[in-house]
């Protein structure tokens, strides 16, 4: 079975690579000028919507969402010939491409935003306020509250959170059995560290690490849940800002933050090796680690109920991050993508209509299942449209159960810099054995300066 999982994943990656090369070879043509462009030999009005989208690791995947939505949009406007021209970019290029394009006042009708970018784009008035649209639409209650709120800046809606992810504890059942480790011991901080020691003593001589500890560029995302479950926050509002009156101030270096960082240090002190390189769960599926905290569901090539069952027989999942004590409420970080309409759009009403259609459960649902993304809408998560994802996505109900305990990162413009300071604090603890409080205080001081307090 392990070989089968690797072969399936290898074949899937190869196929995706071929498609990506094909799409990129015709990059300037994009979607609107081939498959979804229709003949306009009549005298109907012609409208071409333009979009800039993050490529989701596979530029071709957008076809399966935009295509059906565009067909439905056209059906509602028989008097208009509607086409779409969209361009996709890798994650590390998307933000700058969006900023430069919109700052140059180039008309774009639709974009995808990482939730943490939203505040910057809204503050710079690069995206439209969608509040009036959403009030008329009336679907706010269909969203999980944390996801709907993630599209707001100063209580106005600037983006609709389309899908998300959560992270939890994945483990190989046979490897834990071999080391005589009870999976339930992974639920608490003390039990997690004790299990890691036991796993390492049995598995490390065989080239298998007991527990994966993220030390890569996104390490803050794996630390924040420990901060949140203790009642701490990344930032908090404070009065007395030199220019803004009330503004955000670093809070991650308080007692909760120090305690959360100490848990990271305790893992290193127990012999768990931090991992600078990250492969988003591939390393776990290759059985290089017995336990990993990750959003692994995106990387499991499963398309049938039988293959899901076979996977679940071998791999276990605990829907939580380890907690200090059993009576603590767990937490997780939620990522994901929002649809927004740039201020430069010349077709805002049509762009909004296209967004609402893409978000219809019967159109969005199959897309989410195909890529194992988690929904932000309740009726896809646990309502009438949840049947298919429950059938094929491993531990789907457990994953959905984590959404209410999920948190979002700040979406203010300074956040990316703050996250880098937190990462530097984590690096100093992970790789230099630094004092947790001193490391966090240094990061907070640098963050306060960026936020304009110093």
From TrEMBL:
Entry annotated with the keyword tRNA-binding: no
Pfam families: SBP_bac_1
The keyword Aminoacyl-tRNA synthetase belongs to this UniProt entry's keyword annotation: no
Transmembrane segments: 7-29
Record-linked InterPro entries: Bact_solute-bd_prot1, SBP
Keywords (A to Z) from UniProt: Membrane, Transmembrane, Transmembrane helix
Stated name of the protein: ABC transporter substrate-binding protein YesO
